[in-house]
């Protein structure tokens, strides 16, 4: 594929198509490498989830947690369907598009006669694309579910803080309940940082590459005939990439917003009815929770809706440059 990029360097359309596939493959290898390197962290995440403080909730708390997890599952199912659709469309232009007749799903240079071994090469590429899409989407979906759990745990913590009765309960019971909430908060933060070290270092390149992938696919959709298999393939791939980046930013934003309102939940309780010493501890905890828990990709890019806006803005800027170069 690298050789093909060099060969097509003067053809903007073919170069965009080759770079689209090449960038996707590089980001997948990067993400898979980080996943393999940090595989021991996954066991630590599992150990945190089995901690007693993370389960044994009443029914209304479980409802909050299930709602968050269900949102992550819905996003994962949608992304998996889009991935399957993209893989399905990938091979169709080779048979139904006259301009792509006898072409391969992934452009590239081969040290043999492709026409002689067309079908074995075609099957090999489709299987490789399907395996890449399945593995890549599995890593993403796993991270989305874990991030959803973190957001749900923050919601449970907020409910626990609001439910403490500082006036009627005895001081020892109140102190034990508050200490449990503080430990719960620390455990959730540890859980979030483990997710970040396990998955989001690999996602950093995904965010960076998404700017170019969205740009290339948008450019190809502009110049391809609307009524063509190649256009449907490019459109499905475009939606798939948009979904991948958007879900990361959306779920990361959920963690940030839920963690930033923990102090408000505590403030809405009757904490002022407690004794002076305990009120000092409450104020310290509220000051601590003023700083929201922000998930970052690679320690640099925060997962937020503002980041998604920046990605789309940058993609459009590069798209405008490509359009100007293509249209004299």
UniProtKB/TrEMBL annotation:
This is Odorant receptor. GO terms for biological process: signal transduction. InterPro entries: 7tm6_olfct_rcpt. Its main location: membrane. The lineage of its organism: Eukaryota, Metazoa, Ecdysozoa, Arthropoda, Hexapoda. It is found in: Cell membrane. It is a multi-pass membrane protein. PANTHER family: ODORANT RECEPTOR, ODORANT RECEPTOR 19A-RELATED.
